[in-house]
Hints:
It comes from Kaistia hirudinis. Keywords: Signal. By secondary structure, the chain is α/β, with parallel strands linked by helices. Helix content is 43%, strand content 17%. The protein has 2 domains: 24-111 and 216-312, Periplasmic binding protein-like II (D-Maltodextrin-Binding Protein, domain 2); 116-210, D-Maltodextrin-Binding Protein, domain 2, CATH 3.40.190.10. The chain is globular.
Amino acid sequence: xxxxxxxxxxxxxxxxxxxxxxxxxxxxxxxxxxxxxxxxxxxxxxxxxxxxxxxxxxxxxxxxxxxxxxxxxxxxxxxxxxxxxxxxxxxxxxxxxxxxxxxxxxxxxxxxxxxxxxxxxxxxxxxxxxxxxxxxxxxxxxxxxxxxxxxxxxxxxxxxxxxxxxxxxxxxxxxxxxxxxxxxxxxxxxxxxxxxxxxxxxxxxxxxxxxxxxxxxxxxxxxxxxxxxxxxxxxxxxxxxxxxxxxxxxxxxxxxxxxxxxxxxxxxxxxxxxxxxxxxxxxxxxxxxxxxxxxxxxxxxxxxxxxxxxxxxxxxxx
Length: 318
């Protein structure tokens, strides 16, 4: 009897080990390919820490970093099937969702909003928002973050944004257009905002932490990867959470990333004053906030109909 019982326990234990091994290697041969941006969001900073390698390795998966790429190139890289994930702003994500794009969000990178704003150029004579009537304001594209900032600031102030001339600038043109007086102000974020603030004679008109803004950073992945490799994606999410915790203990992680991408000492000093982001799941609270953002996008004429963001997210906190 004892021998049979022992044999049975050994058999059960063996099955358990086999199942455990199968679980650990559930994502074996899966590579999480990240098209990262030249900015200090956590999907960029984590590439030098080994955190994603560790988290993904526990489920038998790997990570590959591709870049740095500008946001549009990163988007095209994923849609072409050459990468699985990237980062963007929540506004652009709402826009993509309204177009029924094959993306889902898996991590929200939330901050106060003081890294986004509207800054008047030196010598522009602009001291308040109303002074921008009839003047040119540089933005990063129709319906993009800068356009959102501009519309939101003018709405909050009870002003008519149609009286401003919007000028679309690419990433490399913001600094020169601002410094040379080609535009009276810029509405931008991160490096471009910091560079503008650091310019002698510039004046900050408003930052997004002073507005009812829902524009943050967000990490997105192809729906195909999310559906086929949830375990690997959850490991990636946990890696971003760990990177966020690391940055809160040592914010220099963020400024060091800006230095790596060529930021000047003056720019880095401004960036050091920006809020340190926190990684959060795409839970009911996040979905509600992004649906409010969608309503703002409709109000501002960026999209015709707001998408139901719940259809374009995966909550990895569950």
